[in-house]
Every structure is written in structure tokens, then in C-alpha cells.
Amino acid sequence: MDVRVCCYVLSVALGLVSAQNSYTIPDVRIEVLQPKGFRVSIPDGPGLALFVFQGNLNRKIDRDAVGSLKGEVLRPTNGRWVYEDANTQLRVGDVINYYVFVSVNRKGYLKDNLSYTVQAVEDRTGSSPKPVGCLPTVTTIRGGNACSGQIIFEDDFSSLKDTWQIEQYIPVSSHPEYPFVSYQRLPDDPVVYVSNGNLHITPKIQQRMSDFTNESIYLGNLDLFSGCTSRAEECYRQASGPDILPPVVSGRITSAGFAFKYGAVTIRAKLPQGDWLYPEILLEPFLKKYGSSNYASGVIKIATALGNRDLRVGLDEYGNKVLYGGPIMDVKCRMQLLSRKLMDNSLWGDDFHEYGLTWTPQYISLSVDGEQWARVDATGGLRTRFPNTCTHLPRMLLEKGTRIAPFDDYFYITLGVAAGGITEFPDDSYTGGGQPKPWRNSGRKGMLSFWEDLPHWGTTWTQPELLVDYIKVVAL
């Protein structure tokens, strides 16, 4: 969304009030970076759901104008709302004139007539020198250094560390997959927790939650503003007609304090089983610069297997026996190209497996239990152990010169469970009992049709959890 439109919409819908009322925008921190760029941030606070920055370099800016320097931040990072411009060259004496806008508890607040004069230029990384004996690596850490072979991120889930942010928001139709869930932090009946050395992410039915008293998913509302981690439009939903509330409550965590470029990721996990469920074991771009469409989002799937024990379109099998991964692309070719089957009639959700992804400037390779099964080159070529009918990667990702998108930015880790949606399950598919998929991916009433089929799919959710034993990222 254009930032000016965003500000106008929020000003009208939420009621723009001055910074002297019930909430005062905290002091804005601006840091100038080397060799170019700058970073703007404010501390996180209760109910804060959006941070917008608008500025001009060495010229004034009006409070209702769009600046040449602009950014919209949808969620905090490591306790602060951070906008980073990586391209503007600043020199001592330059002046940034700017205003900021925030949304707090569904109200808009503006702070304008602000300026910052560049006094000094700081180190872009803010990191200490590399230790003696550190071998060079193509791996980089946002805000830090790495050495070849070094473990740069690791968690055995003996506890839920502050490194992870538990998400709380409602995906909207612009989401690449538009799953039929809301991600929530539930203090009394959590969907995200650690137990017996494993991370548990357990989807549940919204209508059955003990604290859900807002009439029903047909007529009620879902207010997640308190603790919401996304933009305002994803913090509240009012049911209306076929636009019901998301029928599934699930969990999602992100490595908010850690992002990297290039490395080897290993995750030992047990995937969820249950009709129309799927795990989210992802790398997502830190700056979200690729776009939000399914083919251009830049998201990398480390591993996923659809929750249905049996799922077919004609004679083709898509259920929990088939493993998928790699950059997001057209669903039909993804399922034909990047897939690996278990040959002993077992399911990926029957036991723990070690899923690996190696991400280099030249390629992304996928492995399971130490065996590589697919590889995507930076120029779009693909190698796989299995025959396929797609010979290239159609509509794959937003091009950056001659290289596909996930090869030129920092990425963070996401773990979660989703249900339904508009991309993961092929239309005209049916379960092992011959039960057809109850919605169409392009259908206006997809979420409603999914919910009304609860008597069929609800009984299959006997093991809906994603269990994660450990995760490790190693510099190349």
C-alpha cells in the first residue's frame, strides 16, 4: 500500500489525534550507516501496530506529503520498530526533515516538524572485528560477523528464548497463501509452547476456545490489537456474510532478532497430520522487498508436507507421503518438480526427520536425513532426483537481473502451522475416502466452505502438531 494512502486511511478510520493526548510518540532514533544508508527506529510499546516514516533530504516536508525517503514498518524487530534505508548516501551536515505516524490501539498519532542533522557516520554493522583464525565465508549476519563453519544460530528448545517472536495477527487476502487461520498468543491455552525439549505448535478450532465469547465465527469479531505484531488491517476482523472469522487458531514464531544471508540450515522436526493442514518451516526476506504475491514473495520453504494422509488429483498423489520445498512457485510445477516421496508407505508426519537447506550465492539445495533431493540454481535451473513434466520454473519469482529473488537479501526463520488457504491444495483434489476438497482456491467463499466441512476434516486432526526438536544454522 502507498504510505500516503495508508496514513490517510488510518487517519480517517482510526481517528488521528495529536501526540499530546493519551499516547506520546517516543523519541525517534536515527543512525547514519556506512558506506551509505540510515536507520530510523522507535521502541516497541503496548498496542503499537504500525510505524510510518516520511522524510526529505535537505528540504522541508509537509505533514500531508509523501517524502523521497519513506517506509512503512508492520512489526517490531528485537524490541524496536525499525525502518532501514540501505541506499541513501549521507554526509556530515546533511539534514533529514521528517514526520512519523504510528497506530496504537486502533488510534493514529502523528509527530511532525522533525529534523535530524548528520553529525557523524557510524559503522553499518555495529559489530566487533572478526577473531584471529576466523576463516572467510560468504555468510553474513545482519548486525554481525561470521566465520566459516561457525554455528551462527542454534536452539534445542529447552525453553522458548527471547530470540523468537510469537506472532499475533490475522492473514488477509493479500497474504501469499491466505491461510484460514489467525495466529494468536494465548496465555491460558497456548498454541505455541515448549515441553520435553520440543517446540509444540498446535492448531485449534476457534469456536471451541474457552475464552471465545464473541457470538460465533459467523457473526462475531476477533480483536487482536493487544499484542498484534502486524499492520492494523491484520489486527481485527468483523464477520460479515461469507467473510467469517478464521475458523482455526494456530501459532507462528519468527527469529525476530536474527537474520542472515547464505548458510546451511538444519531442522529436526515431526510434521503435522490432519486434513488441510501444512507446516510453515520457512526463510522469509527481512525487508519484504520482493512483493507479496505468491510467486514474488521470495519465501523459501525448507520443508513442507500436506497434512492429509491421502490426497490425490486423479492418480497423482499430494498427501503426507510427498515432501516439498524450495522457493515459492506455481503450485502445479512445485508439486511436480520439488517433491520427494517416502517409499515404504510411511508418512513424513509419522516420525522425526532432519530437514536441511544449503543456501549459497549460486544455488539452494534441499536435503532430508542427510540426502540431497533437489537443487535450484540462482539462474533458475533445477535438478531433482525424480522425473517431472515441468522443464522450467514458470512465474517463479521477481527477477533481480539474471538471478532469482532469494539470493540477494537477509532472511529470517519462521516456524508455524497453517490450514486451508489458496495455494497449497490443488483444486479437484480428494482425500483417501473420496471426500472432495470443499473449497476452490479462487472462490469467494473458500473459508466458509472449509469451515462447513468440519465434520469431515475435524476427525482427522489426531496429530495436528508441528514438533521441532532443534534448529541450527551454520556459516558456509
Hey, roughly how much beta strand do the residues contain? 35-45%
| Global structural class | mainly beta
Molecular shape? globular
Please give the radius of gyration in angstroms.
23 Å
List low-confidence stretches: 1-20, 291-296, 329-337, 385-402
- The number of distinct helices, counting runs of at least 4 residues, comes to 4
Secondary structure: helix percent: under 10%
Number of domains: 2
pLDDT averaged over residues: 82
Distance between the termini: 37 Å
Largest sheet: 9 strands, antiparallel
Mind telling me the CATH class of the largest domain? Mainly Beta
Secondary structure tally: strands: 36
> What's the architecture of the largest domain, going by CATH?
Sandwich
Here the CATH topology of the largest domain equals Jelly Rolls
Family: Belongs to the insect beta-1,3-glucan binding protein family.
GO molecular function, one term: hydrolase activity, hydrolyzing O-glycosyl compounds
Keywords: Glycoprotein, Immunity, Innate immunity, Signal
Signal peptide: 1-19
Q: Any overview of this molecule?
A:
7% of the residues lie in helices and 37% in strands. It has 476 residues and is mostly beta strands. It has two domains: 3-117, Beta-1,3-glucan-recognition protein, N-terminal domain (Immunoglobulin-like, Sandwich), CATH 2.60.40.2140; 165-474, Sandwich (Jelly Rolls). Strands 10, 13, 14, 21, 28, 29, 30, 31 and 36 form a nine-stranded antiparallel β-sheet that branches. Strands 11-19-34-22-23-26-27 form a seven-stranded antiparallel β-sheet. The two termini are 37 Å apart. Residues 1-20, 291-296, 329-337 and 385-402 have low confidence and may be disordered.
